[in-house]
Predict the 3D structure of the following.
Amino acid sequence: MDMNQYLEVFIEESREHLQNVNDQLMRFEKNTDDLGYVNEIFRSAHTLKGMSATMGFDDLAQLTHKMENVLDAVRNQQLDVHTEVLDALFESVDALEIMVQSISEGGDGQLDVKLLVQKLQHIVAEEPVAQHAASSIEYDELVETLLSQTVDQGFNAFEITVQLERTCLLKAARAYMVFDVLEQAGDVIKSAPTVQDIEQEKFESSFIVILVTNESHEKLQASIMEVSEVESVKIAAVPVKKETEMEELVSPEVAAAIQEVTVSAPSKSPVEEKRQPSNNKTIRVNIDRLDSLMNLFEELVIDRGRLEQISKELNNSELDETVERMSRISGDLQTIILNMRMVPVETVFNRFPRMVRQLSKDLGKQIELQIVGADTELDRTVIDEIGDPLVHLLRNAVDHGIEMPQARLENGKNEKGTIRLKAYHSGNHVFIDLEDDGAGINREKVLQKALDRGIIDGKTAETLTDKQVYELIFASGFSTAEQISDVSGRGVGLDVVKNTIESLGGSVTIDSSEGYGSRFSIQLPLTLSIISALLVQMSEERYALPLSSIIETAIVQPKEVMHVQGQKVIDFRGAIIPLIDLKELFTVPNSVQGDHYSVVIVKKGEKTAGLIVDSFIGQQEIVLKSLGHYLPGVFAISGATILGDGQVALIIDCNALIK
């Protein structure tokens, strides 16, 4: 069989199972008395082992099999849980993730896991994990009555106990093969565990089946033993009462039930048995298909804009109605497509507990990571980019924000530090807050380092507010390895964090209290593909400004414009803000100054500025297209869009204009 067609599904499901193992291990570490976590880990590991063996990834299957031995000993209370056990399991998960990543990149998934396997074997002292006998099967009134009827008709009734080999990797598959043999020989009346539990591998290595058949004891024994990885088969005749004896014992309810029951084997194997219908039906769709769908819809949005413009020019009522209806339908379609691309931030957050655990252990610290709002959704494009900035912020919080346990105790704090990662929606944005109860940021040390680096001068330093001082740690070149220990441990790679977030159309702000902790707040747009924008005119050119950056528009008279140190400024609601003439900035040809200024007030965090344009065209939803490799690094331009009349409008990056 060609397994390549299943490779993508294998990779996705393997990652899901590994993430579940990670999550449950983290929970189990906090509460080792709750063996429910171990059962959940065992099920995921067992499923992963079976999939890996089927796909031919032997290293994966071998390592998960050894993990199973440890987990089995833990859940059967044959092994005390201690740090060595948990560390070995976490280390095994890391190795499995490396192998799955190798497979996803086209590799063979091979990894030298000999030392890790030996460590797992050492934990269980290389002793076979005790096997639990299958649950004894119960002969209720209905089953006994059915058996008595079949025996009276000359059939044999057998109780068959099948023991699989302990090293069997695919227990459900072997059980299916045994059931297939039994179904050809007769009718299966009952099993223990249930067929559904056997299908889901919720059994150790043995199961019991009641079979009604014409076959002999010896023939059944030989047929079942032909199935691979069957260790032993025990067959015993079921003692059945005569039907005449049963008539006196049968209750009216059972008698009625017997009339509706036909004695037959399950029409489907344990693996194929019909499941209960689920209300939550999902399918897996390759992200490339969603990208293609989004690209096609973006073209539809462009054509919709063109139709709306033609409709206005022709002033035809029937055309107007049709275009209006198409706009409503395409608007609904847009909402559906954008929602399809939304992914919970959980997909990014779920790798952080392990990272924080390992970092805190390496540093000798005690840290609890609290995650809130993991189900908050973001566009996949944003999700793909936000992971690394959050890793930077978390590493800084763990490494330099949270103090050592002794230092915390001396300062009257709990020796265990807390980092809180919270995501939530607000309007058309998603906010991600990272807060710690650590040492906070030392204002004076930050200022001194900024002065030493020449980032600011002494005169400027005297005028800065606390928040402006904190933002200095985002400056490029502010921090080096030797500066980390001096400046409250903040700053490593934070210029990269800021640049990445702003490239996504977002912003990051800092709030801190020395001795009590810090909070980094990230604001991100819900989606980057289709945005609402204000179209503006400058001479014969048109530009688009994202609405998410705009506070309001204003008409300013020339007499209201002031000059401060060669910069045009205006008094906007009691605050002096700079004016930026976009026609001068972008060297727009044939530019003529009118008798007033049309100004768009934009924001970046707490900073504002006014952008001078010729006129406002109006609000419109636009498709953001990257400039690609043709015009890389164009200042203050984040992309382009095609308007309804086919012309191209450049999209202005307001964040780049505000310093």
About this structure: The longest strand covers residues 416-426.
